[in-house]
Amino acid sequence: MDDSNNLRNRIQRYQGRLSKLDARVIEALLADPIAASYGTAKEVAELAGVHQTTVIRFARKLGYKGYLDLREALRHDHREGNSEGTSAASRIFNRLQHGGERPTMDVFLEIEIAALRGIPNHVARDDLTRAVGYATEAARIFIFARGHAGVLADHLAMRLDRLGFRAESLHFVDMLTPQQIAGFRQGDLLIAFALRRVPEQLPLLLSFAGARGGRSIVISDMIGPSIRPRPDALLAAPRGSETEWQTLSVPMALANILLLELSRRQPQRAGETLGRIEETREELEDLLRRPQQP
To answer: What is the CA 78 to chain-centroid distance, rounded?
Structure first.
């Protein structure tokens, strides 16, 4: 089987002919191609939230005889080491295997340092400057993330608040979301994290921010350039090999770089807010030291 039969190559070749339902099938297949390569069309359809016939039509649209042919291509990619999507457990196992008998700590630090050093090769200074400008001018900042990235959203919201910005994190889009973002208007900013796959609600939020006259920043990895609609600023860098451990240090570093740039650009704003926080802390400590009234 030559490389032209590679699933990702075929998806790129036929991209203009693929529908929104096809996109859902692609996400289900690439989320864990090892599992998909041993599953049925019905199982993939259930993961994608589409009918089984949609999966079969998708396979034929890419030039395969049917889903079984597509599944064999996935298995071939895995045998040849070309599979770019594996389960979390598989990615950790692959990385530790490559480490051989070396201590786990050494292997882990090697991955983290290599990924962090690669950031300047992928994030242009102009993109960072543009993102900092949007954040500096924002009246309010909403930060969206799903899954493991949720902790990054909470961290960024807390640190922005400490720097004097009005910021809050959103972990999903549900019935309460309109209440949370009802006041989003021109001059506000949406920051979103998209790691390994595009969160289902992200295109909706990006469209909403644009329709309201706001700006958007996405912090991502190698899926960043595929996000639609395009954000106003994209800060994207790989988090390690796609078939091995995917570090959170890279998106955390991008968030912290954004924070440091904001502090440098508006030192007075940050200083005043941090000063008020320190005064409040001292006031609370003083109250704690006072004798309690009977």
So the answer is: 24
